[in-house]
Amino acid sequence: MPPAPLPTIVSIGDRVGPGIYTLHSRFRRAANYIRASRIVTTAAVEVGAGPANILIEPYPDKPPLSLRISPGRVEAGGKTIRFPTARRYSSRPEFSRPDRAGLDRRLAVLRGEILELAPPLSLAFLLDRRREIGLRGGFQKLFAARINNGAELLLAGEIDKGVAALRGRGFGLTPSGDDFLAGVLIGLHLRQAIRRRDCSRCRDRIFGRARRGSPMTDHFLALAHDLRLPARLKDLAEAIAGGTESATAERAADWLRSGAGSPADLATGLYATLKEGERLCS
Hints:
With 282 residues, the protein is of the alpha+beta class. It contains nine helices and nine strands. The chain folds into two domains: 8-89, no CATH class; 103-276, no CATH class.
């Protein structure tokens, strides 16, 4: 039997910093590691590049309990994997030619993709209230009411009340309300690029109120605040800012199919901010 191929780092994100990280959570094709407030993720190639992702091929069946990351190499499970600087993934999108004139058409495309591809319990009901009919039981209906209230308050400029109603709401490694807030932060970056208005103070305030001491949530909110995006979301952001409608549809579908509920919840916050966020960043 030939020896197993040595693992190779295909891509390493530009927000992966040196240090010793311990296993936080694991899934079939990815694992999260934590060091203080920093998170890095080892993942299979199909997961896609990201600011804190280390893509490994072949991906191990059992992730190691810790990682030691230093310049040019990653030590894991008794093995050292070296990587050149050329394999660094650049996570910040480029908005070199923002197109304000076609924004409404691209947003209509994004909305259509969200409503078609979002799972039943996602926050897509914020874009079409008919989706609330599928929510069952008092808990789900109460959850929808709180999310509706929080989104309305936030988009009306009531930042403190809106964030308080949204943060931590929902289930999963990153709850739905937090994913929505990450989308809002990214949406404010896009509003600034397209409409040429400084939204930094609003972003800072939302980020400050949204953090709640959960390492994974605070990590993803920090990436959104700093506009450091995984590859599929980076492509979508660039298409919304200045691409074609067909490119927006393709990139939106790629992003929405990249996970369970989180991509749809984030995309809903992104859409709502661009479509209705005038009072957030005027």
